[in-house]
Each structure stands twice: as structure tokens, then as C-alpha cells.
Amino acid sequence: MRTLPPHLPPRKRSRRLLLATATATALGVGAALVLPQSAGAAETAPVGFGAGTTGGGSASAVTVSTLAAFKTAVTGNTAKVVKVNGLISLSGQVDVGSNTTVLGVGSSSGFTGGGLRLKKVTNVVIRNLNISKPVAPADGVTVQASTKVWVDHNSFSADRNHDKDYYDGLLDINHGSDYVTVSWNTFKDHFKGSLVGHSDNNASEDTGHLRVTYHHNSFDNVYSRIPSLRFGTGHFYDNYVVGAETAVHSRMGAQMLVENNVFRSTVVAVTTNRDSDVDGYANLRGNDLGGAATEVSRVGTFTSPPYSYTAEPASSVVAAVTSGAGAGKL
């Protein structure tokens, strides 16, 4: 059974444990029961598949305000914390080395016009940044052949005034990347939100990898890919989705657990059977679909993530995400 919240006094913990045990027995779910708890919006460490990611850790921070200084600061694999002060214009992407924390200063620092690339690196934290209008072929953030990544409290955005291919993805994870947590971000005004696994033909590299957790994110006026997952294993919980055509998309045998999310003004909340030769798998529980359809052709086996977490109920998700997600909320 999952660990009870440590802040409860012993008597309440004991009483809650008895209640949980009784409820689990009645529901027939046993150890899979997750007790609701109000989540803290400013976690000090990632929850989910990206747990253990520390980035630059306690390394002395360097503050930069120009593109040249930023490129120099994030190069290499030694432990480093790079603070971005102000909005920096990009053309294309900047490569970020291993063991790095990139942290925006205040609520309006970050990048526009391009993005960041994590290629063949490990242990990277991307936090508190505004990342906007990544002109194709640049994504806002690309995680490529990389492991241990935490993308947290960022504000991603573009616009819907251009052709759907004018901007690239806001956050794409591909080429066998693994152990990634995407938490407390806002994604706004975009066609192609977050693609995990770039191709139906990449099974040899992606199978057994692409383990990604999305929790407490806001997706507002994002048309699709919330996320789109091929081959991997995804846990999508406590997210708030408004205005999507097709939100969660599991394909090419991917396993998705979709838990305690809220969907509004969305046509299809979850699908497993579009656009690829092989369907995906999905398990749904505790969601507020808000009238959205679901297209689940295959129910999956992924029902119990291999990490500790607490999924708050869908009834509290809108308030939590609205108040806590995005840059400037740390």
C-alpha cells in the first residue's frame, strides 16, 4: 500500500490506514489504491519516472542575460546551475549539457523563437522558464536520447494564427529517451503539444524506453498531442485540458495510465486507435471527461506506476493547476 502523507499525526494516520484498507477491500483494488491529497505546487524534487533527477544540484549559480553567455554557461557535463534573467531571442535550439539546471528568474524570463535541446545527456532540470513561439524545425524543448529529465513550472506557448506546421512541438521527447517527469507547466495556443516517440518506424530504439510522467499541467487551446505517445509507458494524472480536439493519444503499443484529469471543451479525451498502424493501450480512472468522447480500443496492463505518488481527486485539479502551474509559481 502507498505511504500515507507524513504530515498526518499518528492517530489520524492509523484511522486513515484502516479506512483505506476497508475501501480497498470493498473496491477490490488492494494495494493499487491511491489516497487523495492536496498536492504542493512547488516540489523540491520530481515525482514520477523522473524521480532522482537533480540537475546541477547545489552548484553555485551563474546568472546570464544574453544568448552568448547562456550558450557558454550550459556547455559541458560538470554540475552547473544557470539562471536566465530576461527574455532571450533564439533562432533554432541551444544544446544543454548533462548535470545542468536551467532556471528562469522571476515570472517573465526565458526564450522566444526557438528552444532548448537535450541530446545524449542525463540529469537535467528545466524550470521556471517562458518558452514561446518555437519556429520549426525547433521545438520549445527537445529531449533526444537522454535520461533523467525534469521539466517543471514552465510556460510554453505559441499561437494558432499560423499554419499548424509553422511552429514545431512545445515539448518533444524522442529517440529512446527515458525517465522524464513533466510537471506543473502550462501549454497554451498551439497545434502540436507534446510528442513522445517521433515515428512509427523507431521501435528498435524506443521499445522499453520513453517512460514519462505528466502531472499537474495545464493545456489550454492546444489542438492535439496531450501527449501523443508511441512505444513507451506514460502516466498522465491531475492535468487540466481545455479546448483540445484530440488530447491523450496512445499508439504503437504504448501503455498509458490516464488518472484523475479534467477535460473541458474537448472532443476526444483519450484515443488509442488513430494515425498509426498499431493501436496503443490505455487505462482510465477517476477522470472528469466533461462530455468528451473516449476511443479506447485496447485496455492496457499499466495500472500501478513503479514509484510513490499521490493523485489528488479530479474535483480539486482545476483549482490546484490554475493556481500553481506555470512560470513564476515557484
TrEMBL record:
<dbReference type="Pfam" id="PF00544">
    <property type="entry name" value="Pectate_lyase_4"/>
</dbReference>
<dbReference type="InterPro" id="IPR006311">
    <property type="entry name" value="TAT_signal"/>
</dbReference>
<keyword id="KW-0732">Signal</keyword>
<feature type="signal peptide">
    <location>
        <begin position="1"/>
        <end position="41"/>
    </location>
</feature>
<dbReference type="InterPro" id="IPR011050">
    <property type="entry name" value="Pectin_lyase_fold/virulence"/>
</dbReference>
<comment type="similarity">
    <text>Belongs to the polysaccharide lyase 1 family.</text>
</comment>
<keyword id="KW-0964">Secreted</keyword>
<feature type="domain" description="Pectate lyase">
    <location>
        <begin position="57"/>
        <end position="269"/>
    </location>
</feature>
<dbReference type="InterPro" id="IPR045032">
    <property type="entry name" value="PEL"/>
</dbReference>
<keyword id="KW-0456">Lyase</keyword>
<dbReference type="InterPro" id="IPR012334">
    <property type="entry name" value="Pectin_lyas_fold"/>
</dbReference>
<protein>
    <submittedName>
        <fullName>Polysaccharide lyase family 1 protein</fullName>
    </submittedName>
</protein>
<dbReference type="GO" id="GO:0005576">
    <property type="term" value="C:extracellular region"/>
</dbReference>
<dbReference type="InterPro" id="IPR002022">
    <property type="entry name" value="Pec_lyase"/>
</dbReference>
<dbReference type="GO" id="GO:0030570">
    <property type="term" value="F:pectate lyase activity"/>
</dbReference>
<keyword id="KW-0119">Carbohydrate metabolism</keyword>
<dbReference type="GO" id="GO:0000272">
    <property type="term" value="P:polysaccharide catabolic process"/>
</dbReference>
<keyword id="KW-0624">Polysaccharide degradation</keyword>
